[in-house]
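Quick one - inputs below.
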Amino acid sequence: MKKYNQVYNEIKNMILSRQLICGDKIPSVRKASQLYSVSTTTIQNAYFDLCADGYIIAQPKSGYFVSDIEEILTQEESSRQTSDIKYDLTGGAADADSFDFTLWQRYIKSALRQKERLLSYSEPQGEYDLRCAIAQYIKEKRNVITSPDRIIIGAGVQTLLQTICPLLDKSLTVSFPDNSFRQGMSLFADYGFEVHTRDKDAGIIYVSPSHMTRWGDVMPIKRRLELIKHSQKNGSIVIEDDYENEFLYNVTPTPSLYALGKGNIIYIGSFSAMLLPGIRISFAVLTKQLSEKFKMLSYRFAQTASKTEQIALCQYIRDGHMNAQIRKIRRLYTAKTKSFASILKDELKNAEIEIGENTLQIILKTEFSKDINIFNQMSLRVFVQEYKDGRIVLVISPSGIENAEFKNAAKALKKALI
Amino acid sequence: MKKYNQVYNEIKNMILSRQLICGDKIPSVRKASQLYSVSTTTIQNAYFDLCADGYIIAQPKSGYFVSDIEEILTQEESSRQTSDIKYDLTGGAADADSFDFTLWQRYIKSALRQKERLLSYSEPQGEYDLRCAIAQYIKEKRNVITSPDRIIIGAGVQTLLQTICPLLDKSLTVSFPDNSFRQGMSLFADYGFEVHTRDKDAGIIYVSPSHMTRWGDVMPIKRRLELIKHSQKNGSIVIEDDYENEFLYNVTPTPSLYALGKGNIIYIGSFSAMLLPGIRISFAVLTKQLSEKFKMLSYRFAQTASKTEQIALCQYIRDGHMNAQIRKIRRLYTAKTKSFASILKDELKNAEIEIGENTLQIILKTEFSKDINIFNQMSLRVFVQEYKDGRIVLVISPSGIENAEFKNAAKALKKALI
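Output:
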C-alpha cells in the first residue's frame, strides 16, 4: 500500500508540477516496476487510479500518456482561491464596486495605441508625463510642492525603498516608530542599516502619519510639528509614507509632513489602494540631494512599473478621475466599516468595538480562551493585534467582504470567538 | 538685466515644474517688487514677457494668473523624446513590427475582465497560473525542469535580485566573470556582498551564458560543463541569467546550465526583450533551499509585476503565442543585423565589421582620432567598447532603427567616425 502511494503520488506530483506535460509518455508497467522496485500489480493499480483521476490516459498498444490536465488545474486553482479563506477580514482585497473597470480599460486601450512609446524602455525614473501629473496631483491634494525631476516611480513602496536605500548613507540608523511595517524594517536591515523602533537619535525616521498603527491612528498636527523640528535640529531624514491619507475625511485634515517641513523629507505615495491592488504604481519625492545622487546613478536602476499602466494612469489623473475615484472609495469604505461595526455590535454584545481614526479599521476587544488556531480552522483571516490574559484584540477591515455577506461573516467570527 | 532674468526664470521654472499651476494667482507687480527687491519696472517687464511666452495671463483688475501650459509642455515633451537622440544604435528600443499590439490588447482586455482576481493583491511569489505556464515553457524551451513552487515572478531582473539577495548568505563573495552587467554588480554590493570579477573561489557566480559579453559571445558547452563541475566541487551557487538565449539559432543550441547542473543553479529569464520593453515580467527558478527560505519570509516581499499583465501573459503563453513571437523576432532581428552590417561595410570600407555570436550585435573596429563626444553632438547613441591608440571598438545593435532609415543611420555614423 505504501509503495502504491509512492508511485501514485510521485507521478501525480510530476504532472501537477508540469515536469510531465500533456502528451508525455510515462514508463511502461514493466519499466516502472523496475524503476520503483515493486511488483507490476502495484504499478498497474497506481496507473489505473491515475487514469480514473484524469491524470493519464491509456492508449491501447502504445502505453500510458499524460492527459490534458488544464481543466483539473483550473478547478484546483479556483477552489484554491475561494476555499482557502472564507472571509478575509484583514482588508487584503478591494470591493467589487470600488473600481470602474470599463473606464480603466479605455485608458489602457488608449495607452496600448501609443506604439512608438511602448517600443522603448521606460526611463529609470518613470515616465516624464506621469511624473508631471503626479506633481500636480500631490500639490493639490497634499500641498506637496515639487518638480517632476524630484519624483521617482516604482512598482510599489518596497521597490521605491530599494531605490532609496542605495542612495542613503549606510552608517545612519533607521527608526520605525510604528513597528508594524515589518517589510520596511527588514528591507532596511537587508541593506545593512541598523534598524530600531523609537530611536530619537536616528539619522532616518520612517513614519506613516496617516496610518501610524495597524488600527489607523493618525498623527496629530502637534506631533507632526515636533517631529519636523526634531529632524531639522538633528539633521535627520524623515521618510513620510503617506499611506491611506486619502481616507481621512472625518478627522481634521492634517497637512503632510512634507508640506510642514523644509527639505529633509522624502514623501512616498501609492495608487494601489486607490485603484486596484494589482496595479503597482507608487512614487517618491526625493530630497534635492538624493535626487541629484539618483540622477548620477540612474544607470543602475531599471524602471519596474508597467509602461502601459504608467501611460494610462497619467491620462486618468489628468482627466480628473483620480479625484472622483478617491471620493467614491472613501464613501464606500467608510460606509462599509460603519455598517460592519454595527452588525458586529449586534452579534457580540460583550465585546468592545470601535472604529479606528482613519475609518477603515475596526478594533474589537473581547474575552477569548480558545486556541488561536480557531480562525484558520474556520477559514477566517483576521489580524490578531494582541492575545493575553484571556483577552484578545483584533483589527478588522471588511473592505473585501460583500455587504450581503456581512451578517454571515459576523456570525462566523462570533462562532470563532465564543 | 540680471534681475529681470532672475524674476523671469524663477517664475517660468515654478510653472514648468508645476509648483504653480493653471489658475494660480501670482504676486502683484508691487508685491513682487518687494519680494525680489527690484523696481516695479523690472517686474513689469518680466511679467510682460511671461505673458508673451504663454506662461501667464493678465486679467484686467484682478491681476496675473498662470495659464494652461499643458500645450507648451506637450510640445516640449515630444521634442524631448524625438530630438534628443536621432539614431539609437545601442538596441535600446524594439522594432515597430516586432510585436502584435492588437493581439496583446485582446489578452489584456480579457485579463481586465477577471474582476474578482484583480480585486486582491497578487501573491508575493507571482500568480500561480503564470508560474505553471512558465514552468511548462522553460521545460520545453530550455529543458529547465522545475515546479511552479520554485518559481518567483518580478518586474525585471533587478527586482528578482532584490528578492534573492536577502535570501543569500552575506558572507559569500560574488563573482561576475563578465563585468559589463554593472547594475547587477552594484546591486549585490548595495546588499553588502563582496563583489569581484573572475573570482574562482566565489560563493556565488553570476553568468549570462547566452550573452557573456556586450557583443553577445556565447559560452561554449565545454566551459559550461567546467563551470558546473567547479561550482559543485566548491559548493557555490551559480546564478544563470539566460538573457537573449532565444536568439541563438545559428549557433549549435547550447543547453542551459540549469539543465546541466544539479540543484545549485538559480535560473533567471525575462520576457521584456521578447515582447515589449515596457512589459516588466521576469522570473527566477530558485534552488530548493532558497525556495523554502523565500516561503518562510514571503511576508516580507510584495509582488512587483502588474497583475493584469501577469494574467494576460499566462494565457498568451498557454495559447502558444510566445513560441510564435520568438520565431518572429529572431527572424526579424537577425535579418536586421545582417542587413545593417552589410550597409555599414559598404559605407565604411576600412572598418572591420563582424556580427556577434548571438546575431544581435555588430562589432565595428576602426581608426578614430576625433573627440569621443562627437557621437553625442551628432545625436547618435552608440556603445563604445574600447577607445585607445587611435582605434575605436563599437558594439552596435540596429533593432530599434527602421529598415528604411538604415542607410541614413550608417551615413551618420560614417560622418561621426571619419
